[in-house]
Amino acid sequence: MKRILTMLFMTLSLFVGLSFTADAQRVNGVDDFFAADYANILREEDKQLISAKNIAYENKYKDKAPQIVVMTLPRMSTGDIESESIKIFEDKKIGSADYDNGILILYDLDTNKVRIEVGYGMEGSIPDGMAGMILDTYLEDIKASDKAAKSRGLTSVFNDVVTQVDADIAEGGIKATKASVWKSFKYFVMNNPEMMIFFLFFMYAFGVSTVREVKDREKINFYQEHGADEFLIKYGITWVAFYAAYMARKRAAVARAASRGSGNIGGFGGGGGFGGGGSFGGGGSSGGGGASR
């Protein structure tokens, strides 16, 4: 009997402990999963705003809810803002596993660097080019020495990201679509117009040369039936898309190299020991893209 009572007491204590932990994550309207202010930068009202929007997503979209997390660190564990953001993204399991719709806005106080890390499912809402433009808009506040200015800048970044996500949801729902791919390509073209003009000219010349050299009778009949122009348009656009993806990866590599510090920095462990956070957090994976400043 004594053994049974002991086990019952331990079980009850466990449930009470779990309940306390869950309640502790949301105090005064602040959820420390969504507003993870380890560097003590964010103002209380800003943390409440960040939490409220994410909780509203949960209430409205349930297991499809996007998650937009703002985190500040006193010091990174990796010395590289991109590596740190990916590590935290995976450890915190930001976004839904099925929709990969998480976004992390990460600021490191020690290096004064900031990054928007975007899950694959959110690339249509926040392509790399747009992530960079959003950061540039508020970079002066984020880089300021005044913590209130930093909080204002990071919260403004959050609000702009939310605006884009809401617009994308209103347009096509919570899903990764071909339209999202087009958006990413459109922003790449906007940021690299000279490269696109050069490459289109190159592909036109290449297409003309290819048409002239084709000897296969079936292919010649195809060109005669559909016209060389259609061939050039279809295959030209395909190659431009491949080139755009290549350049995007190249620019990401350059950004990674530029953002690396001088070796690993000891101190705060970016990914360890995070609470489970939002009720529907479930395992989005990073790798979709983003931008660092």
UniProtKB/TrEMBL annotation:
Keyword terms of this UniProt record: Membrane, Signal, Transmembrane, Transmembrane helix
Superkingdom per UniProt: Bacteria
Endpoints of the signal sequence: 1-24
Transmembrane segments: 195-214
Ranges for domain TPM: 37-141
Name the record gives this protein: TPM domain-containing protein
Native source species: Vagococcus coleopterorum
